[in-house]
Amino acid sequence: MMRKSRVAILVLAAVAAGVVLTAGLNVSPITHALWGEKEKPAVVPAAAGLRMVPVDIPQLFKEVSPSVVNISTTQVVKFNRPRTRSPFGPQDPFDDFFNNFFGRMPKEQKRRSLGSGFLVSADGYILTNNHVVEKADEVTVTLLDKEEFKAKVVGTDPKTDIALIKIDTSKKLPFVSLGDSEKLEVGEWVVAIGNPFGLGHTVTTGIVSAKGRIIGSGPYDDFIQTDASINPGNSGGPLFNLKGEVVGINTAIIQGGQGIGFATPIQLAKSVLEQLKDKGKVTRGWLGVYIQRLTPDVAEKLGVPGKRGALVSDVTKDGPAEKAGIKSGDVILAFNGKEIKDEHELPAAVASTQPGKKVDVKVVRDGKEVVIPVTIAEMEGDPGKRGGAPDLSRELGLTVQDITPELAQRFEIENTKGVLVTAVEGGSPAEDAGFQEGDIVRQINRQPVPNVAEFAQLVKKVRGDKTVLFLVERGDARLFLAVKNK
């Protein structure tokens, strides 16, 4: 009996010594056993023996969930009902029957949608996605305790899909802490809270799968990809780090995808938050260049070191770039002291620059680096939404966006000058004229349309015209569409 006890003690001591020795080498016993005596992995993780202890998710949810809200919207859609004739021909005895039947159909219908948001101040300001409240006639906010408020839209920024709304209440409301999404690391744990499928407050967890994702949704794509479950209704809700700080706004999912969601980095929201609060829209800088990807072959031909930068394919006539001397074929390496690694980084850098500011743009031209001073102008065609004059493009029933390199590649568009029709409202003048999603607008009243900014300017000019002539490209064909203003 005594001998068995000594053997047991010796075995325990040996195991303990092995654990202590392994801990001193900063490796786990299991990993050590897998290595064997001779083979070791090429890279030994610095924290192989000490992993992050999971945070108390229930406690985190209790602390931050009161600042998360559910958002429901109502939109009144009006229908134009033309006189309906019987399919049996003119002067058919059933003609009156058809008109009486279809005449009883409703002239308008209410559409409802659901989303999420989160309080960013004690006095009721709420961040959410623009697409959650866009075109809404009524916005209702529900808190965790089921208290409901009618909300007003303070400002929207369609280019980043961010909106700021507000509810009025005499009590102080709990609000979130905004973190730093630039410090977020791939593999880091995150927590999503929202209102999926209208079920109410729901929490899911996962990790950051990737950063800087470009999904073709707009000119400033820079999404956080996460495998925390995000579903319809989560849009506009917060993505938290384990400190309870908001690092993203849950925005998009891939249709049919599993465990793939996208969140707008909170740093992007921070950059527009004050402007939305003060002006209801976002004022951005404008350089006036068309850019494209710098391929290795082109970089070598142009003598660009490191194969980095944004290739200027064209410049806007009388724009800031043309006035300063930037030319087609230049490769932009730096803007206002910030290195430009590829074509995706330049739009955000320019947009965040105050209009009227003079900046240095470093380019490569004929194999030599040249610094060109440019005075940045204000980007137009970015109306936002704040009770003012109506946007004629909405009156026409068209939603358009610039043709980004990603969209050009996806839809095999060779000529990127123009705007892509992303939505046509039912019963609108645009639908009556024959517009379809995917059409590319090339001209308005015989004037070229290179981008959304020019589109907006031309649309303003034709506000009083009874008929507006659009030249659109659909597949391999070009056709004119005449839109009648109501």
> What is the CATH architecture descriptor of the largest domain?
Beta Barrel
End-to-end CA span: 101 Å
**Total of domains:** 4
Number of helices: 13
Strand order of the largest sheet: 1-2-3-6-5-4
Label the overall shape: globular
SSE class: alpha+beta
> Which band does the percent of strand residues land in?
25-35%
List low-pLDDT spans: 1-37, 47-51, 82-89, 382-392
What's the total count of β strands? Answer: 27
Give the C-level CATH assignment of the largest domain: Mainly Beta
Characterise the protein shown here.
The model is unreliable at 1-37, 47-51, 82-89 and 382-392 (pLDDT under 50). This protein folds into four domains: 1-51, no CATH class; 54-88 and 95-283, Thrombin, subunit H (Beta Barrel); 285-378, PDZ domain (Pdz3 Domain, Roll), CATH 2.30.42.10; 392-484, Roll (Pdz3 Domain), CATH 2.30.42.10. The longest helix has 23 residues, at 2-24. The protein has helices at 2-24, 29-35, 57-64, 95-103, 130-133, 266-279, 296-302, 320-324, 345-351, 392-396, 405-410, 429-433, 452-461; strands at residues 68-78, 108-119, 125-128, 138-142, 148-157, 162-166, 177-178, 189-194, 202-213, 223-226, 238-241, 245-253, 261-265, 285-286, 289-292, 310-315, 331-335, 338-339, 358-365, 368-375, 377-378, 398-402, 419-424, 440-444, 447-448, 467-474, 477-484. It has 13 helices and 27 strands. The strands form five sheets. It has a six-stranded antiparallel beta barrel with strand order 1-2-3-6-5-4. It starts with a helix and ends with a strand. It has 486 residues and is α+β, with helices and mostly antiparallel strands.
